[in-house]
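Dear colleagues,

As part of the handover before I leave the project, I'm documenting each prediction I ran so the next person doesn't have to rerun anything. This entry is a single chain, and its sequence is reproduced below.
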Amino acid sequence: MSLNTRLLFALLGLPLVVYACMAILLVIQNDQKARALLEERIVNASHSLAPRMAEALLETDIDQLDTHVGTFLAQQSVSSVTIFDNQNNRLLVRGRTNSASPLSSYPNTTQLVTTDDGWRLQVPLEAPTTGNESPTRAGWLEATIDTYSLNLARYQMIASLSLGGMLLGLCLFLIAFAISRYVTRPIEEANHALYRLSWGDYEQTAMSHNAVELNQLAQQINALAHHLQSAKHDMQAQIEQATSELQESMETIEEQNIKLDLAHRSAVRANTVKSEFLANMSHEIRTPLNGIIGFCRLLGRSSLDDRQRDWLQHVHRACDNLLMLVNDVLDFSKLEANRLTLEEADIDIVTLVDEVLGLHAPEAQRKHLHLVAMVYDDVPTPLSGDPLRLHQVLNNLLSNALKFTQQGDVVVRVMLEHYAGKHVVLNISVSDTGIGLSEEHQQQLFSAFSQAEPSHPRQFGGSGLGLTICRQLIHRMGGEISVESELNKGSTFSFTLPLQATHAGERSPELHLDGPIVGVHEPHTTTRNVLDHLLERWGAMPVALSGNAACDLLLISLDQDDLQPKALSHWQDIIRAAECPALVLVNGSSFELPKLDFPFKGELLCKPFTRSQLAASLTHLLVPVSETRALQSAPLPALPSANEGYRLLVVDDNTSNRQLLSALLEAPDRHITMAASGHEAIEMGREQTFDMVLMDIRMPEMDGVQATRTLRRISNAWSRCPIIAVTAHALNSERQRWLAEGLDDVIVKPIDEHDLNQLLNRFLGIDTPDSAPQPTKKPPSETSTSATLPVIDLTLGARLAGGKDDIARAQIKRLIDSLPATRQDMEAAYQQRNIEALLDSVHDLNGASRYCGTPELALIVETLETRLRTSGLDHAESLINDLYRAMDKLIAQRGTLG
């Protein structure tokens, strides 16, 4: 509230309040006095007329009575008069009266009843007597008194006092306004002077005043203005000095910034050069590495003694480890240089996790670890993301978990953390029971080129880049990775993964059963929980395996202790006594599968198993149960029995390659079918099923990956049919991508018969000894010392052809006959700088030469394909010329083949 307002209130409000209080008291006092006077006058008049009215009433002199009543009615404020006799009968009424009922009894004394509407006076009429006689009662009088004159007088006084208050208020307002202006004007002038001072106007001074206090205020303001003016001059001088010093400092800082900017640009340029150098060197190192690996393979086909072969195996393993390190460095350099791009493709989490587990199954089987996948049912499918990078992250985490775990289990869990609209956040974790990590080691775990202990690279191997790459990949995909670990008790690596769920829906069960009872023996708790959940989800009733329970199927899990002869004999007795099919899960490799007799049908599965494998086995084993219960379901094409032989499909667009693969696979119990393209393979797949498919990757129109996807969708039987990728060249990233696309394994040309037999044994259980003749061992002194590879090696060709010399010669002849057309295609593609067309020609030649005894051509073309894939056309010209020279040599020696 301003000072002016306060003065107005003080000078105007207080007097008016006092005046109002006095006016109220005056009105109240005057009103009470007027009422008392009116009452006294009316009562006195009634008392003076009452005796005369009584006499007239007793004498029944109505005229006289009327005269007295008129006299009383003439009194001021009397509005009506009524005369009653002793019996309360109304005798006379004069004036304005109401219809009020008379008293029930005679009034003994004069009574005045006051109300808001008016007064009522009741007076007894008694005739006067002489002596001690009591007065004679003649009747009584009732009069109505009108109080209008009293109210009118009161309102007139209130109006007069109000008018006086208004005049008083106006006078007081004028006086207060004049006083407030006299007091506040100097203050306003002082305020204005301070405002000018605040804006830097020091010339205008405050005016002096007659009042001492206001004059002191003006003097202080003027002194403040003088002080501020002096301070301004001093500050201006200091600012000028500081500005001069700051300008000098800024010039110095600018020079330093220029130097820092040059240093920063140099550092960024050096970092970019480093990343590009790492990427280029990784590509360049791959080229001689592939050459070394190629020489190792060729050298392995030559005559070596046991010690030399052992040394060669060490060299081969060292090359594989070095190639893995180069791949890690390449991924790390791409991430550092921000050259890594993410793809968008549909992801089936269950299939992807099963594929990763399949890659690491041999290591888990070697260590006899339990490798378990748990994908929760609420995880929708399909999701959209980068399956290759997710595969890479899971592959690295599982590799570490298996590497540092010697006993126990490794569990992969995929859970739904958040699902809103078309966005899904998954929580994926990999838990192990390995050596664990301390708090100190956890803090530096995700740093590049670092491992928990300095001795780990020597003991377990690795470059220390895997977790760094995983963290950066997960961050690129929008997630976070963390670790929970306790020393000597295991670790859990978990990460969140945001994905798109545009067309996602609830995962449908892979199998629908009609309530069969499955007796389960699984000592591993986590695996038992997974089995129970899957069986219940598919409609089965899992029960604990006991001797008395009647079951439709036995599901038995065997560890290494159960594979001993005594324990194995015990389980064989249980299978025979159960009189139902049996599914045996073995925690080991396919080479460790026991020989069991299944009198009522049965199958053997290696752990870790996939959902599709388990569902296919249950479907195959429970078909009799479904038929007895009259299930109307379409039967799946049955696999051939042992007496029917194995049906194998070879898919390759190159005729020579098809014929050579057919020759390598030939056996009395095998039926081999050949397809020249992916489309032809699909047409065959719609008509029949096969036990195994060897699928060439690079084919025109439809490549091997596209053909595999189509075959997998034909039927359930095709979903579990092993399909092996056959290629002349496979980088590690390409191998992982093919496995993620649905292929079961990859075999590289030239196909080693021992490797092929291992695949047959692993997927079909065929125990086939190597049919190719083993090279005769020569003493070291007889080993050729030639520095170059031979142009034609018939011994090598016969070995690649399964020991058949005539097929080897025919293969080389067909290769030589195709060389002119291949060279013409290569020259046209190179002149047009069309690397895709050139790669196709080189890849076809590489695949063809892998099956022939042409070691020089095979090595050059393999090295050229690697160089083209890693470095493009920039550094391939010399190798292309070497390849042309090797072609000319080979064409020149065609006559030696007969």
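Residues 27 and 157 are 7 Å apart (CA to CA). The radius of gyration is 58 Å.

All the best with the project,
I.
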